C-alpha cells in the first residue's frame, strides 16, 4: 500500500497511458492514477478511507436498528458524490476516455456509483423492493477498488492466471471426489438409518438428498466442517472417517502442485533454463549480467 | 481442459494405440480419443456437457419433489443412449477392442451405461429396491470420465503414485495418533463425566465408545472439526487442546514430506530423468558435467 | 529455549548493550539479559516457571469456585513482587536505563507489574469493577516475556516483518473476497428463506445482516467453520459450496506467496548475505565465483 | 511397508545388532527383526494383521452391546499369547537381551502384553474397576508397533527431531497468541453479554472463564472450529473475525518455517556445504563420489 520504486515495465506502461495535452491534465493523471507523488499518495489514502467507510455503511444498513438511520443515508450520498467526482476525473484525464470507460476498472468505477442513482429513480415503492435490493447490492463492487490500490495486484493476478490450469485440475479432482463420496455417504446413511429405525432408534439422517450429501462432502474435504450435516450411524461414521483421511491425503497432492507452480517461477527467482554460453552453467538470476561461475557476459534471449 | 501440444511420450503412446486399417477408423479414433483436432475438441466439449448434465440429473433424482419427474427419467435415458453409442464407438475404433474393454477406462465406460439397463430389467418391484438403488448408484462413476479429459491427469496420477509411500506413512502416523489420543480422551471424558455427575451436573459424555472417540480424533486432527462430538469436562478440554496442538505440530511434518516429494521432482532445479549413461544414477543437477556417482562425463540430451 | 552459540551480529549487539562501570553490574547484566552462563540459564528457567505459573493463576481466577481463593491472591502477589524485582534489576544493569524503560520489552516488563499495584490502589469497590477488570487484564502481557526468551524470536520477527507486504496483500484479498461473498450470501439467503416461508417452511435465515454474513465468510474462508451460521436453503448451500471451493482455490495463491517469501531467503541454496564487494549485489548461489551483476570475482568469507 | 534395499547405514546397524552364537538364533533374528527374507516378510504381514485385529477388538469392547461378548475376550487372549510369544522370541534372539528389554521398543512390546495379565490378577471386582480400566488402556500402545514396521519411521523420527526447535517456537507462538486473544475475548464477551442482558436479550456467553476462552482460541487458531464455544455478541464476532484473520496470517509464518526445515535438508537431497576440494562446487548429493562439475573424487568429511 506504500509507494515503491516502479519497475521498468510499470514505467513503460505509465508512459503509454499518460495523457497528452495540457500540463494540468498530465498532473491530474499523476495524482489520480499514480501513487509516487505526495499528492498522489494523499489521494490514495483518501480513497482508501472512503472505500472502507463505504463498506462499513453498506454493511450497517442491514443491521437491525440501523435500517432507516438518516446519517447512514446521508453518508452514503456523500460517498456516492465523491466516487462520482472520482469517476468523472478519471474519465477526463485518461488518454483514451472511452477505452477507460470500457476497461475492467472503468466498469467497476461506474458500478460504484450507478446503483445509488438507480435506486433513487426506481423509488422506494414496496413493489420494486426486490429489484432495488439487488441493484443496491452492486455497490459491494466498490471493495474491488482496494485491489487496484495494491502494488502487488498485478503480480498476484499474474500468479493466479498462471496457476489457472492447476486450479481447474484442483476443482476437477474435488468435483470427482465430492460426487463419488457424496453419493456413497447418501446411500450408506439412508440405508443404515432405516436399519436403525427398525431398532426404535429415531434419529433422522442429515443426508436427505445427493446434493445435500455433496454439500457435506465439499464442506468436509476443504476441512471447513460446519457440523450441520454429520453422519449419525456407526457405519456412516467409519466410512466418513476413512473418506476424510483419503480425501485429505489426496488433496495435498494438487495443493502441492499449485505451491510448486508459484515456487517454481517465483521464490527461487531463477530461470532454470538461463544458461551461460561459455561454461553452460544454469540457474542464473533472471537479471544476471555475468555468469556466476565463469564470469562470462550473459546474453538474454 | 484445453488442447495443448502433446509431449513426446504422449505422441509415442498415441502412435502405438492408433488403430490400423481403413482411414475412417483412424479418423474416428482421432475424434474420440484425441482432442487436438477441431472435431475431437468438439467431441470433448459435448462429452463434458453430457457428463455434467448426467451428474445434475443423478443428484436431482434424490431431491424431494423430483423423485418421479418424467423429464429426469427421459433425460437419463437419453444420456444412457448417448454414452452407449460412445462406448460402442470406442470399442470399434480401438486398436485392440478387447484390451480396451478390460482397461480401467473401458470398465468405467461400461459402468456408465450398464446400471440403467440393469435397473430396467430388474424392474421396479419394491422387493428389489435395495439392489436397484445400489446398482443405480454405480452411475456415479460417470464422473470419472471427467478425469480422463484432463491433460494433467497422467501427471497427477504419476505424482500420487510416486507419493504413495509418503501417503501410507501419513496414514500410519494418523492411525497411531488417532488410536492413542482417541483412547485417552474416551477414558478421560468417561471418568470425568462420572465425577461431574456425582456433583449433580447432568451433562453426558459425547465419547460413548472408543470407535466414537477415534472418529472424533480423525475429525479433529484433519482440522475438519464438525463439533458433533466435543469434550465437555474441564480436564477433557485441556487435554483435548494439548492433543490438538501436538497433533497439528506433528502433522505438519508428514504433510511437508509429501510436499517435498512433489517439489523435489518438480520445482527445484533438478532433472529427475537426467541419467548417467554409465552407471544409470539419476537426480543430477541440470548443469552437471560429470556423474556424481561414477565420475563419467554427462551428455545433455 | 536452550542456550546456543550467539551469532556474530548478536555478539556485536551484546557488546554495545553491555553496561560499563563496576564488574558486578556487568555480571548482573550477563545473568539477567544473557543465557550462556550457568547463572543466566538458571535465571531464565526460573523466569519461565514464574511466567507459566502466572498465566495459570491468572486463568484460574476466572473459573467458577476459584474467584476468591486466598492462595491464588497470595501467589499473585508473590509473582508480582518477583517481577517487580526483575524489572528494577533490569533498570539498574542496563547501559541506558531510560532507553530500556521506553523500549518495547521495558514497557512489557512494566505492564507485568503495574496492574496489580493499580488494582490495589483503585480498591475493590463494586463501582470501579469494570475499570479494575480491564486493568487486571493487562497482566496477560506477561506471556510476551516468553517471546523474548526464544532464541528464534529475532529470526521470526524478521521473517514476519519481511513478509508484512505479503500479509497485507493476503488480508486485502481476504477482505475483498469476504465482502463480496458475504453480501451475496446475505442477499441469497434472505431472499430464498422468504420464498420458503411462503411454502410454510419455517426455518429462519442465520444471515441476519451483512456484518453477520461477513463473519460467516471469514470463518468459512479460513476453514475454521464453527457452524453457528450456516446456509439453510438449497440455493444458499449450492452457492456456498461454490464459494468455498473458489475461495479455497484462490487462498492457496497468497498463502503460497508467503511461503515462497520465507523459503526464498531460507531453505533454497542461496546465501542472502553473500554480497559482491564491488557492486553490493546479493543473493548469489553459494558456489558463485563471479558476481552475476558486475562480473567481479567473489571472495568467500 | 514393503521390503526395500537397506541403506548402508541400516546394513551396518544390522551387522552390529545381529546376535552371535548358533545359526538358528541368527536365522530367527532375521525373521523377526528384518523384513528382507520371505519368512521375515511373512512374519511382518502376520504381525500387521495381529495389530490391526487387536485395535479393532480393543475398540469394540467399549461399544454398547459388545461389552461382554465372549468372542472378543477369547480373541483378546489369543492375541495376548501371540504377542507374548513374539516378546519372548525377541528377547531370546537379541544380541543383548537385557538391552533390548530396556529399549523403547522392548518396553512397548512388554506394554502390549502386560495389561492383560495384570487385569487377570487384579480380578474383576467392581472396587478395582478404575485401576483395571486404566491398566487395560495401556494395550493401546500396541498400535506403536505399526510405527516400527515402517521403513520411513527412522527418517520421519529424525525429521521430527530435527524440527523440534521449530515445533517449540511454533508452540510458544501459539501459546502467546492463545493467551492474549483468549483473555481479550473472555473480557469482551462477558462485558457485552452483560450489556445485552440489560436489553432483555437473554443469550448467555459461551466464554465462561479464561481457560474456556483459551480452549476456544486453540480450537480456532488451528482452524478446527468445533462451534461449541462461539462469540454471540456483535462486538465479539467482529473482534473474533479480526483475531482469526490475524492468527491465520501469523501462523503461516512458523508453519512455513517448519516446511522450510524439512525441505531444506530433505527434498533437495543436497548438502549445501558438501564442497569439492578442486573446483569448490557445492550442493552435491550426500552420497556423491565425484564432483558433478569437474569430475574430481569427493572426500567425505
Note down, in words, how this protein is organized.
The structure is a homotetramer of 301-residue chains. The first copy, chain A, has 301 residues and is mostly helical. Chain A has three domains: 8-144, Four Helix Bundle (Hemerythrin (Met), subunit A), CATH 1.20.120.350; 162-253, Helix Hairpins; 269-301, no CATH class. Chain A is 65% helix and 0% strand. The first copy, chain A, contains twelve helices and no strands. The first copy, chain A, is flat and about 85 Å long. Residues 1-6 and 265-272 of chain A have low confidence and may be disordered. The interface between C and D is large, with 55 and 55 residues. Chains A, B, C, D: Residues 43-256 form the Ion transport domain. Chains A, B, C, D: It is a multi-pass membrane protein. Chains A, B, C, D: One of its GO terms (biological process) is action potential. Chains A, B, C, D: GO terms for molecular function: voltage-gated potassium channel activity.
Task: Please identify, by name, the CATH architecture of the largest domain in chain A.
Answer: Up-down Bundle
Radius of gyration of chain A: 28 Å
- Proportion of helical residues of chain A: 55-70%
Q: What is the string of SSEs of chain A from the N terminus onward?
A: HHHHHHHHHHHH
Low-confidence stretches of chain A: 1-6, 265-272
Main pleated-sheet profile of chain A: none
Question: What's the average pLDDT of chain A?
Answer: 77
- Corresponding CATH superfamily of the largest domain in chain A: Voltage-gated potassium channels. Chain C
Compute the number of helices of chain A: 12
CATH class of the largest domain in chain A: Mainly Alpha
Number of strands of chain A: 0
The secondary-structure class of chain A comes to: mainly alpha
What's the domain count of chain A?
3
User: Gap between N and C termini of chain A, in Å?
Assistant: 34 Å
Shape descriptor of chain A reads flat
Largest interface: B-D, 63 and 65 residues
The multimeric state of the shown protein is homotetramer
CATH overall fold name of the largest domain in chain A: Four Helix Bundle (Hemerythrin (Met), subunit A)
Strand share of the residues of chain A?
under 5%
Region (Disordered) (chains A, B, C, D): 1-23
GO molecular function (chains A, B, C, D): voltage-gated potassium channel activity
Keywords (chains A, B, C, D): Ion channel, Ion transport, Membrane, Potassium, Potassium channel, Potassium transport, Transmembrane, Transmembrane helix, Transport
GO biological process, one term (chains A, B, C, D): action potential
Amino acid at each position: 500500500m506504500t509507494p515503491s520504486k516502479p519497475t521498468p515495465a510499470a514505467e513503460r506502461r505509465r508512459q503509454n497511458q499518460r495523457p497528452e495535452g495540457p500540463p494540468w491534465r498530465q498532473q491530474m493523471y499523476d495524482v489520480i492514477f499514480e501513487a509516487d507523488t505526495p499528492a498522489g499518495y494523499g489521494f490514495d489514502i483518501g480513497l482508501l478511507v472512503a472505500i472502507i467507510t463505504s463498506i462499513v455503511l453498506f454493511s450497517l444498513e442491514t443491521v437491525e436498528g440501523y435500517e432507516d438511520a438518516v446519517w447512514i443515508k446521508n453518508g452514503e450520498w456523500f460517498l456516492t458524490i465523491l466516487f462520482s467526482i472520482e469517476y468523472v476525473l478519471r474519465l477526463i484525464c485518461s488518454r483514451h476516455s472511452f477505452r477507460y470507460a470500457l476497461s475492467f476498472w472503468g466498469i467497476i468505477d461506474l458500478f460504484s456509483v450507478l446503483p445509488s442513482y438507480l435506486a433513487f429513480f426506481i423509488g422506494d415503492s414496496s413493489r420494486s423492493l426486490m429489484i432495488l435490493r439487488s441493484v443496491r447490492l452492486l455497490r459491494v463492487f466498490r471493495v474491488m477498488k482496494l485491489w487496484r490500490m495494491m502494488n502487488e495486484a498485478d503480480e498476484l493476478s499474474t500468479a493466479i492466471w498462471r496457476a489457472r490450469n492447476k486450479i481447474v485440475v484442483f476443482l476437477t479432482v474435488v468435483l470427482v471426489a465430492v460426487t463419488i463420496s457424496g453419493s456413497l455417504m447418501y446411500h450408506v446413511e439412508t440405508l443404515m438409518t432405516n436399519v436403525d429405525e427398525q431398532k426404535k432408534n429415531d434419529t433422522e439422517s442429515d443426508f436427505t438428498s445427493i446434493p445435500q450429501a455433496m454439500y457435506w462432502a465439499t464442506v468436509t474435504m476443504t476441512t471447513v466442517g460446519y457440523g450441520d450435516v454429520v453422519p449419525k450411524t456407526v457405519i456412516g461414521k467409519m466410512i466418513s472417517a476413512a473418506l476424510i483421511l483419503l480425501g485429505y491425503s489426496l488433496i495435498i497432492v494438487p495443493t502441492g502442485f499449485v505451491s510448486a507452480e508459484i515456487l517454481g517461477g517465483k521464490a527461487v527467482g531463477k530461470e532454470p533454463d538461463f544458461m551461460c554460453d561459455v561454461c553452460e552453467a544454469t540457474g542464473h538470476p533472471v537479471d544476471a549480467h555475468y555468469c556466476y561461475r565463469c564470469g562470462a557476459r550473459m546474453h538474454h534471449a
